[in-house]
Design brief:
Blueprint (H helix, E strand, L loop, with lengths): L5 H4 L3 H6 L16 H5 L2 E2 L9 E2 L9 E6 L5 H16 L4 E7 L3 H9 L11 E3 L2 H6 L7 E6 L2 E6 L6 H10 L17
Parallel strand pairs: 3-4, 4-5
Antiparallel strand pairs: 1-2, 3-6, 6-7
Length: about 190
């Protein structure tokens, strides 16, 4: 099941400029994660230490951070969590998965209430902030952004997030995966 999410909360460059804000250029493969994004507080609903917020900077010591843009009502997204949990445990010293959702806090808490907490122990489940939505644009989930040593090296669907691809990236520092582009053929995106 695919969800079209970005149109609901993507702010136009014109309205951002009218409000005196700096335009944010959506990140692409090869781009370095800007400091603003590293230090942006992200609300989390299931932190094992009870924290209300995290930052990506909390995991900057990991070689690879994979941002999983998902939705709790997406069966494909929730089915993938068990596999991600296994991968997180195998690669715990070098990789961190961060789940990101556009849902309301109450929806995410309701989802967690009916799922075994152990499935989410190693994953922070965060809210997508408007600024995050401006930096990382997508329309359909699931959507994975691979950040290796501070740079985006891949943007994929869920099938590419697999043991062999993770090992290849960690061992060689390079990965060449099909790019998930939800805006292909559109001008100005």
């Amino acid at each position: 099941m695919l969800f079209n999410l970005s149109d609901a909360w993507a702010q136009s460059a014109e309205s951002r400029t009218a409000e005196g804000q700096t335009e944010i250029k959506p990140l692409q493969i090869g781009d370095t994660i800007p400091e603003e994004l590293w230090h942006m507080p992200l609300q989390v609903v299931n932190h094992p230490e009870g924290k209300d917020t995290i930052t990506l900077n909390d995991y900057r010591d990991k070689k690879l951070i994979i941002l999983d843009f998902m939705h709790t009502r997406c069966k494909g997204c929730t089915d993938k969590l068990k596999e991600l949990d296994t991968l997180q445990k195998i690669f715990s010293c070098t990789i961190k998965f961060v789940l990101m959702s556009p849902e309301k806090k109450s929806e995410m808490e309701s989802f967690l209430k009916y799922r075994p907490m152990s499935t989410f122990y190693s994953f922070p489940l965060t809210f997508i902030d408007q600024t995050v939505a401006d930096y990382i644009r997508y329309r359909f989930i699931s959507h994975f952004v691979w950040v290796y040593r501070g740079k985006i090296v891949a943007i994929t669907g869920g099938n590419e997030v697999a043991d062999d691809n993770l090992k290849k990236l960690l061992n060689t520092g390079n990965i060449n995966l099909p790019v998930k582009n939800d805006f292909e053929g559109e001008e100005g995106i």
